[in-house]
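Researcher: I'd like a structural prediction for the single chain below. Treat it as a standalone chain; there are no partners to consider.
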Amino acid sequence: MTDESFGRASFPEPDRGASVSKMALAARIRPLHPLLFLGFVSSPSQSPRQKQSPGQKNRKMASWACSKCTFLNPASQKYTCEICFSPSAASPSSPSSSSSSSIRWSCRACTFSNPSGAASCEMCGGTRTAPSSAFLDLDLEPDELSNPSIGSVFLPLQRCGSKRRGPAPAESDRRDEKVARKDVVSSPVSDLEVSRRMEALGNLIQQHSPDFICFQEVTPNIYGIFQNANWWKEYKCSVAQKVAAESPYFCMQMSRLPVKAFRCKPFTNSIMGRELCLADIDAGGGTKLVIATSHLESPCPAPPRWDQMYSKERVAQAKESLNLLKDSPNVIFGGDMNWDDKLDGAFPLPDGWIDAWMELRPGESGWTYDTKANQMLSGNRKLQKRLDRFICSLQDFKLDSIQMVGMEAIPGLTYCKERKVKKEFQKLVLPVLPSDHYGLLLNISRS
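Model: Treating it as a single chain, here is the predicted structure.
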């Protein structure tokens, strides 16, 4: 999990005072029940997210998801993806451009090794930057690594020994294969052993037994897997089965605590169907708590411009969220913020609000997406970001601790990635984690 945010907090039960209950992958409040916040992405990527307009959120869509970059194209875009120009499943098939030549060039964006005759990347559609060269060297100088196109496209996990490419699935199958959100999300959930990865997430939930859980980038497929899990019946879910079946991907909250209401507020500027999800919690003793989650607008660098970072939209969504939450005395806002401090600036904290990680572990990086530490992502270019965060405003509670979870590889599960190492192409066999984001476990207690 890249920064799957797990928050755990304990709250006193309304009728029994301050008895402690457990929480999984979340923030824990000592005298209270644990609260879990978990945001996850099912593939090791920050590939372009599926996009949908707010009006499409709760109905079946005639759109189709690109098999390469996962962009959700409108029905009017029949034959090629708007982002990477890859053909749709309905487009006329064309002969393969693969070459039998042993001379290959490596895509600057996704690092895929292409045959010398290919004018663009077969995987992500990226333009060949040096067509006159028989071999594109990816061992770049330090000043070149700042180029946003470097390693900006991460394709789905591929089981070792499987073929790289195949016929595009039907649209109905695609809908079940996408993590949205994202993402997620953000990328196909059928990438690699989705059932085993969701089982690993379930093990984390059972291990920590949280009172509250927040997910991002849940797909209908993942929703169905969760429904059959042993831990599912212990929680009240914010998303009805019918709504889940009609949504490409969505945020989801689950609670053991008394919930007065679940609410969703679509962002006014989102082209990806993003929204703020809230739960009004009765924490006991007349104490009210609002737990909110979101998946803010995702950066989507892709051909032809590679500059679709959506920073302005992301910052506006963060401000809109905090403005909606500001009147509540106790708020925990956690999720996949997709936040990049260099690009987006400091998170826009109003007076009285704190970033839980910065407050409790100010000297540590807190990278929830880390291609160096997360061996599942080690085949990608270096990228270390604190994408997932807990933002809090608490009058009746205090922060105790925060830690990362979901950092262990799933035993016996690996995938293969081709990468150029010292001018030679090698096939790497890498471990698989529950998500490309690490989770966050937050512990809180009454003041």
